[in-house]
Amino acid sequence: MTRSSIGGITAALIMLGTLSAGAAPSNEEVAARKTAFELAGAFSNDGFKLRDGHWDGKFATDKSKVILVNLYAGNEYWFSLGATGEAKKVALSVFDEAGKPVDFESYSEGATAAAGFSPGVSGPYYIKIEELDGSPATYCLLYSYK
User: Fold this and answer.
1) Which residues contact 117 (CB under 8 A, 6 or more apart)?
2) Rounded to two decimals, what is the model's pTM?
């Protein structure tokens, strides 16, 4: 992914699918969030604190999503992705502000995936979420830090 492709995506980001205050979540959003929270719970056993807020929405095998996050050098982060049952396989990738892939630890099993990362430089990073196999589904992404 090049800087220009990330830049074009950035204009469309502005908090993809974030729930607005007072909006009642759908059953699919609740199910995806539950799956993401279950996965993130494993990281809390290692001292990671769950960050307030989350991103959710719909994705499909041909429509990945990119989410902009600001991260701080010296912290460790785990991004946890949960999707509804229609998603058979999902994945996460991490990119720096120039759109270059960064090294990260990964986990993926069925409709869940996680990416662990410790940035060397504070600033904006991009988290790409993809459905690799399945039918259109609802996702929830959240992250933990320490």
Assistant:
1) 71, 76, 77, 78, 79, 94, 102, 103, 104, 105, 125
2) 0.81
Tell me 14's DSSP state: S
Q: How far is residue 65 CA from its own chain's centroid?
A: 9
Between residues 45 and 101, which one has the greater pLDDT? 101
Which one, of 101, 91, 90, 144, lies nearest residue 126 by Cα?
101
User: Is residue 96 within 8 Å of residue 3, measured between CB atoms?
Assistant: no
Query: 77 to each of 20, 71, 100, 131, how far by Cα in Å?
Result: 25, 8, 18, 22
Rounded Cα distance between 138 and 63, Å, is 12
Q: State the pLDDT confidence band at 22, using cuts at 50, 70 and 90.
A: low
Tokens of 22: 């007072």
Amino acid (1-letter code) at residue 54? H
Q: Please name each of the domains of the chain with its CATH number.
A: 3-14+28-145 (2.60.120.380)
pLDDT at residue 93 tops 50: yes
